[in-house]
Specification:
Blueprint lengths: L2 H4 L6 E2 H7 L6 H9 L3 E3 L2 E3 L5 E2 L4 E6 L2 E7 L9 H5 L2 E3 L7 H7 L16 H10 L3
Antiparallel strand pairs: 1-4, 2-3, 2-5, 5-6, 6-7
Length: 135
């Protein structure tokens, strides 16, 4: 018999406990502190209480490692198990990470800025820069 068939439909689990079971945090105290910081949303509502009850189908949105993490609960955890078991608890709906080239386009240099290590500008390059830059 699978775990899902044994569980009642309205069963819930503490938010901090589920985040720890799903291996988003190394310790339960870290997950509790993160929830209390107010940076986590459950179904588009900011949650600041670690004892908030989660149910299957809830959607969590939170920043993690410089990205926005969006996950849908598929199951409630029974224990903090190995990573494959933890990945079975949720479906990752996060937007794809930007590629290195996309990040470089966002950080493109402003006119008149030279690449580091390109050396001193020649007289011709300096005059061209002086024409571009307002005095």
């Amino acid at each position: 018999m699978s775990r899902k068939s044994v569980r009642p439909e309205n069963e819930a689990q503490r938010l901090d406990l589920w985040l720890w079971f799903a291996r988003f945090f190394k310790s339960r105290s870290l997950s509790t502190r993160f929830v209390q910081s107010g940076r986590l949303r459950v179904n588009n509502q900011v949650i600041k209480k670690a004892h908030h009850n989660l149910r299957v189908g809830d959607i969590l949105t939170f920043p993690k490692a410089g990205r926005v993490q969006v996950v849908k609960l598929l199951d409630l955890g029974l224990r903090r198990g190995p990573a494959p078991e933890a990945r079975a608890l949720y479906e990752d709906l996060s937007p794809p990470a930007p590629t290195h080239e996309e990040q470089q386009e966002e950080l493109s240099p402003v006119a008149g800025v030279r690449k580091p290590g390109s050396g001193r500008p020649t007289k011709q390059q300096r005059r061209a820069l002086n024409r571009l830059l307002p005095q």
